[in-house]
Design a protein that fits this description.
By secondary structure, this protein is an alpha/beta fold. It has a single domain, classed as Butyryl-CoA Dehydrogenase, subunit A, domain 3. Helices cover 33% and strands 13% of the residues. The chain is built from three helices and five strands, in the order E-E-E-H-H-H-E-E. It has a three-stranded mixed sheet with strand order 2-4-3. It is globular, with a radius of gyration of 15 Å. The chain starts with 7 loop residues before the first strand and ends in a 30-residue tail after the last strand.
């Protein structure tokens, strides 16, 4: 029997889910996909200043898992910057927080209100 899937807790969906060069037409050959959980590690570690251990606690996963997700996310950001690719943030193995977690302020998470039509596993009720 396989191990049950452990969903990554994500506080919010990004306000914008597509980034890229403004001086080139966006075609699907130049797209690179980043998952929502990869986005969340970048947000927590690089923007919020969390350590990988704190990020792991916030996302309810192991620190080694965070390290792998974060490494892949940074590689994708670098590819987009250096090679001029369009970055799409969508999908992944995540669930939106319940709005009352430690990093959500306890009075309702204002951040997860930015649902802009991204579809991850949170919409299937799994």
């Amino acid at each position: 029997m396989s191990r049950p899937r452990k969903w990554r807790k994500v506080c919010c969906l990004p306000k914008n889910n597509r980034f890229g060069p403004l001086n080139k037409p966006a075609n699907t050959e130049r797209f690179l996909r980043m998952t929502v959980d990869e986005y969340e590690t970048i947000r927590l570690i690089d923007l919020e200043g969390f350590t990988q251990e704190e990020c792991a606690g916030q996302m309810n996963i192991a620190r080694t898992t965070v390290q792998g997700i974060y490494t892949e996310a940074r590689r994708k950001v670098a590819q987009c910057l250096v090679n001029g690719k369009v970055l799409l943030i969508e999908g992944g193995e995540y669930r939106l927080c319940d709005s009352y977690g430690k990093g959500c302020g306890g009075s309702g998470c204002r951040r997860n209100r930015y649902n802009i039509g991204l579809r991850g596993n949170e919409s299937r009720g799994e």
